[in-house]
Each structure stands twice: as structure tokens, then as C-alpha cells.
Specification:
The structure holds two protein chains of two kinds. Chain A has 13 helices and nine strands. By secondary structure, chain A is of the alpha/beta class. In chain A, a hairpin with a 5-residue loop joins strand 1 and strand 2. Chain B is mostly helical. The chains are: A alpha/beta, B mainly alpha.
Chain lengths: ~325, ~450
């Protein structure tokens, strides 16, 4: 018995590794560690005696990261902290994810990674030929739905990104460069523009923005929205980063507008134009669309850039505001 | 390999313990070979060929002990040579406008300062002569894996006593308790606070800070460095207990000190003792003229600062401590105006140069403490969004840790293992940040 009590720490710690090896999770949580595969396919027992030290460490680490034990523990912590979140509205009880925080009623908000004053000058923002640019620079959820944040965070946890956008508009907006001020579009505090458990816009947010885009692209005066039924919210971020699955519903809206022509549009997109939030079928009613992500914008010489978009009527640049002013805006620098 | 990394905690440690308890626990000679081999492997995994530095220090020390070939100055210079190359040579290269060689720039043997100092202390230890250790014994002594990377700096008697005995069941329970406490200090407290301090260290060109940001950053770092380093030491001490070693304590509630003198008796005790025994006392200590005592004090703090790094912020940190110690002595501060709050405040303020990238950051934080306009403080939103329930609980623990209550909790089997399970849950739900003190 004494002997067993002595080796018990080894047994307990070793059991975690053993079970992790035997039971790996099909959908492990937040694996942001990429294994640098150097062509190494040897087993751990072989790697222990090899000089490939980094591969061994990576492999051991990933076994735990990928294990069902870890996922089980995280899931239970998430459920426990969510119970606190629902029963007490005093604090943000998020325990393990450092990218998100919770509001008064458990609403999910994204954390800023940078917060600064930007004043970019000398950007090249002159569309070639008949093409026009539309900028959809999406505010962070907390900047719009400020009343849903805990009161101890309300005053001091918001970056002044609207200032950056106003400056950007005043410097670069003209008849061929349209910069939507979504702060003023999303200004009705009684309405929700973002999903409850997500950092992206909801149905009302989507339709509000799209109606304004249609007004530009199809030269309309005012396109109104009509409420029609309900639909389920995605809450994808809450499920992916908070490990909490909940079901919430939102009003469904339709646009009171029938287009007479289909415009060709290139969308340089961020995550707001993901299929889950804006379906291609819906957009196809108005546009002939091509998508490209910001990362995939080819590096070109300044004079070649128009070749990239000259066949489109409009190019829509869609980005969350923090990433836009932090780095993406530099795509337009000289 | 970090003591808190998954590969160590859940693979190398259990395998090492299992083999040790089954085969080597009661066989002194084999225990030495086993611990030496495991320690070498432990160091090799993170540092590769740099393991040769440990072997170099071992062989030079043994050679000097046996042959007395060098005088003491030359021997110490030789022992310090790898440390100077890897830690300070970039200053030399910068001074002469030369590029630092890639190998030196991209590699730092983790824990180099610690085992270098341990080798020096071993050579000059009066207890050394009681037993003539073999080269392998000296290697195992220097490389003993629980304390290899960040101390505590161990004397040879501790090592000899540990080699001669195996752990009792109560010591194992105590070891489990200390390791669990160490893991919780690191993962629950230090890493939660680091979410705030990293905002400061990851931001370049901070122009403006307000009182609130500066205060939160200073307090967070003050407690982070304590819980980070003392957590590591708890893990090292706990691991030592498994193998029969009683490693020395490195911290005894330093933030409850009433003076800087008391603080340095409670903070990083083994390093303080090293500088006291091998710098301050050989220079004459306080048993000399008043002027020379102050000179000795300033030299000791200069060495302490240089040990942490040769950059200006570290030197400023050493200067501040030397300055406060001097004021204390001059005014007999500890008797006239003994106050825990003031001492804690000054210690917290003196950490600013320690964690700042450069002197401009130091100035920004200090001036921030006087700025009550929160509008232009662009770090404040990043900090405030991290203040959640976990941060609040951690803050309460930090404040409560400033108490001076005297009670002793004797862990038993159930309490220790319950704590271990809780620690494992916290570890598995966290990502691993390296310890602050590994870079030294």
C-alpha cells in the first residue's frame, strides 16, 4: 500500500497521457498549435531516443491537446461557468478563452487585440474606369451594443474606432468611393444588430447594411425592410470559442426591392460575408458575385492593380474595423 | 523542458517517477546515475547541444578541485565565460557596431545563470572538502532537473543529504501538495495576471497611459512575477521531495516586508544569499567603515541588476533598490518608519524598469500614474476587457496573500490529491506561458 501511494502521482499524471493516446477527440478545442511536420512519422517510443527533440515535444503536446480528456474538462468548465453566467449577471465568467468576453446577459463580445488612433495619409484610393469602391468597415459589437456590457466595463472598454472611421470618410469619400458609416446605420439602441452568441451581424444587421449597399449599387433612394417570421441565430462563435451551445431566435427580414439589373461585384471579404451570415443565394438576387479574402489579394505593382478589378461594376471591401485600421488599410498604401 | 509543459507533466515526469520508485529508490549509486541521466536528457530536449556547457562547467570545476591549476579569479572567469558569451556579449558587439553572431543571438541555454552560480558556490563552499565528489556527481548536482532551469540555487550538503535518503510517504504527500500549489500559482494566478501585463509588453510605442492603466499594470506585474517565480520554486521543491531532496525555500512572503532589507531576506533567498556570501561579505560587508559599507551595498546591487541583464532598465531597477536600501540605512528607516504599505508600494514601483522594454516605457508608466485623463489611453480598453470574474478572484487572492496571519496547514493524503486533481483541471484548460525567470 505504501508503495502504491508513492507511485500514485506517477500513475495519475501518466494516466492522462495514456488515455489521451487511446482516446483522441474527433473535434479538439481550439488547436492553434500547428505541428511542424518535418516528415517525421516515427512513434513516440522511437522519438524518445532520437535527436529530433522538437518533433517529440510537439507530438507529446498535440496528444494532450487532441485528447478527449482535455475536451471533456473544457466542456465541463464551460458549462459550469455558463451556469454562473445565467444565474448571476454581475460578472463575465469566461474562464479559459482569452479572445472573447461575456456581457450582462451572456452576450458574446470579441476582445480587441489593438486599440489606437490611426491617421493614414497618402493612400491610393482611386478606382479605375467605371468601377466604384464600397467600404463596409464593420464596428466591433461592443461599440454598437454598448448597453449589453457589464457596467464596470462600459465606460472604459471601448476603443474609439468611430473616430478613425470618421477621419477615413472625411479624407477619402467621393463619388466613386463610398464608405458606409455603419455606426450611424446601427445607431438605434433599442435594436440588436449582432447575434446573441456571435461577434457577427444578425439578420437585421445584414439586411440593414445590404439595403444601403443596394441603394448605392442600384441607385435607389430608400429601400425598406419588412419583418417576416423568425429564424435561428447561428451563435457559432459561442459554440467554437466558448464551448456553449444555445438556441436563440431572431426576427427574419426581407428587402422590399426588386432589381431590374444584376450588377457585377467583387467582394474582398472578412468573416461577415460567411455563408452562415449572408447566403450567396440571397446575394445572387442582386449581384453577379466573386469573392476573395483579404489574405488572397495578390501582391501587384500599382499599375497592374486595376487589371485585378476593372471588369466589375463595384468592389466591396468588407472588414471588421479593428483589422481594417490595424493592417488591411495598408493594402492601399503607396 | 518547462516544468509546466504538457510533455513534462504528463509524460516525462510520470515515466521518470515510475521507473525511479520501481527500480532505483533505495539504491544510492544507481539513483545518482539515473538522476544524472534523466537530468541530462531533460536539458537536452530544450537545449540540444548546449548541454555541453553543463559538461564544460562540470569538468572545469572538477579539474580545478583536483589540480588547483588556476587561481580563483581565473577559475571564476572561466566558469563565467559561457554566461558572458551568451548573456552579455551582445553589448560588446553593439558597442563596436558589429552584428551579434546568429548562434548567440538565437540560442540561450536556459537556466545558465543559475547553474553557473551553483558551480561557483560549490567550489567555494567550505563543506565541499568533506567529500570528494566525482565528475558525474558534480554534473548531477549542477544538472538536477527540478531546480536546473530557475533554481533555487542548492548547496552541496542539500544534494548529499538527498542522495542518501529516499522519500517517506508523508514527504510524497507534501511533494504532491507543493507541486499542486505551484501549478495553481503559475496557471491560475500568474497567467491570469499576464493577460494584462502582456498587453503592455506586446504594444509598441506606447505614447500615453492613464493612472488606471499604470496602476493595474504595475500591480498585476508585481503579483505576477511573485506567483510565477514562487510557483516554479514550489514545483521544484515538490519534485525534489519525491526524490528525497529538501530543496531550500526561495520565498517567504516577501511582500509583507516592512523594509527593503527584510524584502531581500524573503525574496529569491538563494540568489540573495549567493550575492551576500560571494560579493557583499568578501568586500567587507557591513563590518567596515560606513562609506565602504555603502560601496559594498551598491556593488552588490549592481551585480544583482547585471545578473538579470545588462540593459538600462535592469540597471535602473538595481539602482532603485540600492537607493532605497541606502535611504533605509541612513535614516534607520526600519526602526523609525517601519511600514508594510510604503515598502510594498515602493517595491511595486521599482518593478516598472524590470518589466519595461526601455527607459521610455518606464517614463510612460511613471508619468501615467499622474495622468487622470482616461480619454487618450489606448491601452485602457484592452485592459478593462480582461477584467472578469477570474481576474477578480485572482486579485482577491493577491490582496489576501499580503496578510501576516500565522497558521500552518498540514496537508494529508486526500487534501493533496484533491488539490492535484484541481491543478490538473486548471493546467489542461490553459495554454502554457513560459516562466519569467527562465530567461535569466
Amino acid at each position: 500500500m505504501t508503495f502504491f501511494k508513492k507511485i500514485l502521482p506517477a500513475v495519475l499524471l501518466g494516466a492522462i497521457f495514456l488515455f489521451s493516446t487511446m482516446f483522441s477527440s474527433p473535434n479538439p478545442y481550439s488547436i492553434n498549435k500547428i505541428q511542424d511536420n518535418l516528415g517525421e512519422t516515427r512513434s513516440i517510443s522511437e522519438l524518445v531516443f532520437s535527436t529530433n527533440r522538437l518533433e517529440l515535444k510537439n507530438k507529446l503536446e498535440l496528444i494532450i491537446y487532441n485528447s478527449q480528456i482535455r475536451n471533456f474538462i473544457l466542456k465541463n468548465i464551460a458549462e459550469f461557468s455558463w451556469t454562473l453566467q445565467e444565474s448571476s449577471r454581475l460578472f463575465d465568467y469566461q474562464f479559459f478563452n482569452t479572445e472573447i468576453f461575456y456581457g450582462k446577459n451572456g452576450e458574446l463580445f470579441p476582445k480587441y487585440s489593438y486599440c489606437n488612433n490611426y491617421n493614414y495619409q497618402n493612400l491610393i484610393l482611386e478606382p479605375y474606369g467605371n468601377t466604384e469602391f464600397i467600404f463596409l468597415v464593420l464596428p466591433m459589437k461592443q461599440e454598437i451594443e454598448n448597453s449589453k456590457i457589464h457596467s464596470y466595463q462600459k465606460t472604459y472598454s471601448i476603443c474609439k474606432n468611430s473616430k478613425n472611421l470618421n477621419l477615413f470618410i472625411s479624407q477619402y469619400q467621393n463619388e466613386k468611393v463610398h464608405i458606409l458609416n455603419i455606426y450611424s446605420l446601427f445607431s438605434d439602441e433599442s435594436k440588436a444588430y449582432y447575434e446573441y452568441g456571435d461577434t457577427h451581424w444578425n439578420e437585421f444587421g445584414v439586411k440593414t447594411v445590404i439595403s444601403k449597399v443596394l441603394e448605392i449599387t442600384h441607385s435607389q433612394k430608400a429601400i425598406s425592410l419588412k419583418r417576416e417570421g423568425y429564424k435561428k441565430e447561428n451563435n457559432l462563435v459561442l459554440s467554437r470559442l466558448g464551448l456553449v451551445e444555445i438556441e436563440t431566435f431572431q426576427d427574419n427580414y426581407i428587402l422590399e426591392f426588386q432589381p431590374t439589373e444584376i450588377k457585377s461585384v467583387l467582394i474582398i471579404r472578412d468573416s461577415f460575408f460567411n455563408e452562415s451570415y449572408v447566403s450567396i443565394n440571397f446575394l445572387n438576387n442582386f449581384y453577379d458575385i466573386d469573392f476573395i479574402t483579404w489574405d488572397n489579394i495578390p501582391n501587384m505593382e500599382a499599375e497592374q492593380i486595376p487589371n485585378f478589378y476593372k471588369d466589375y461594376d463595384f468592389v466591396i471591401f468588407e472588414s471588421s474595423i479593428d483589422s481594417f485600421f490595424e493592417s488591411r488599410i495598408l493594402k492601399f498604401s503607396n | 523542458m518547462l516544468l509546466t509543459s504538457y510533455p513534462f507533466l504528463f509524460f516525462l515526469l510520470p515515466v521518470t517517477l515510475f521507473i525511479y520508485f520501481v527500480f532505483f529508490e533505495n539504491k544510492k549509486h544507481y539513483k545518482l546515475i539515473y538522476l544524472g541521466a534523466i537530468s541530462a536528457y531533460f536539458y537536452f530536449i530544450d537545449n540540444g547541444i548546449l548541454l555541453l556547457i553543463l559538461i564544460f562547467l562540470t569538468l572545469v570545476t572538477k579539474f580545478q578541485i583536483d589540480k588547483k591549476f588556476f587561481n580563483n579569479y581565473l577559475f571564476v572567469s572561466l566558469i563565467l565565460f559561457p554566461l558572458i558569451v551568451f548573456k552579455y556579449s551582445y553589448t560588446f558587439f553593439e558597442f563596436y557596431g558589429l552584428p551579434t553572431p546568429d548562434y548567440i543571438e538565437n540560442n540561450f541555454p536556459i537556466g545558465l545563470s543559475f547553474f553557473t552560480f551553483q558551480a561557483i558556490a560549490y567550489y567555494f563552499d567550505s563543506n565541499r572538502n568533506k567529500n570528494n565528489e566525482s565528475s558525474f556527481e558534480i554534473f548531477t548536482f549542477l544538472a538536477f532537473f527540478p531546480q536546473l532551469l530557475a533554481g533555487p540555487i542548492v548547496d552541496i550538503n542539500t544534494f548529499r543529504n538527498g542522495m542518501g535518503k529516499s522519500a517517506t510517504q508523508q514527504e510524497i504527500i507534501m511533494g504532491v501538495h507543493r507541486i499542486s500549489i505551484g501549478l495553481l500559482k503559475k496557471f491560475l494566478i500568474a497567467d491570469t495576471l499576464s493577460e494584462v501585463t502582456l498587453i503592455f509588453s506586446n504594444t509598441h510605442e506606447i505614447i500615453n497611459l492613464s493612472f488606471l492603466s499604470s496602476l493595474i499594470i504595475i500591480l498585476s506585474y508585481t503579483f505576477q512575477i511573485y506567483y510565477d517565480f514562487s510557483g516554479y520554486c514550489d514545483i521544484a521543491i515538490g519534485l525534489g521531495m519525491f526524490f528525497g531532496f529538501k530543496l531550500p525555500e526561495n520565498f517567504t512572503k516577501p511582500y509583507t516586508s516592512k523594509s527593503f532589507k527584510e524584502f531581500w531576506q524573503k525574496w529569491h533567498i538563494t540568489l540573495s544569499n549567493f550575492f551576500k556570501n560571494y560579493v557583499y561579505i568578501p568586500l567587507g560587508g557591513s563590518k567596515t567603515t560606513t562609506l565602504k559599507t555603502y560601496r559594498n551595498l551598491w556593488i552588490t546591487f549592481l551585480c544583482t541588476a547585471l545578473w538579470h541583464g545588462s540593459s538600462l532598465p535592469f540597471l535602473l531597477w538595481g539602482f532603485l533598490h540600492g537607493f532605497f536600501m541606502t535611504i533605509e540605512r541612513l535614516l534607520n528607516f526600519s526602526k523609525v518608519f517601519s511600514n508594510r504599505f510604503i515598502t510594498f508600494t515602493l517595491i511595486a514601483l521599482s518593478w516598472v524598469p524590470f518589466f519595461s522594454k526601455d527607459l521610455s516605457d518606464v517614463r510612460t508608466i511613471y508619468f501615467g500614474l499622474l495622468n487622470f485623463n482616461f480619454n487618450d489611453d489606448y491601452l485602457l480598453p484592452l485592459i478593462v476587457q480582461n477584467i472578469n470574474f477570474k481576474f477578480l478572484v485572482v486579485s482577491i487572492i493577491c490582496v489576501l496573500s499580503l496578510n501576516t496571519w500565522k497558521y500552518k496547514f498540514n496537508p494529508n493524503f486526500w487534501s493533496s490529491y484533491a488539490l492535484l486533481l484541481f491543478a490538473i483541471v486548471v493546467v489542461i484548460s490553459s495554454s502554457v506561458d513560459p516562466f519569467i525567470y527562465f530567461k535569466f
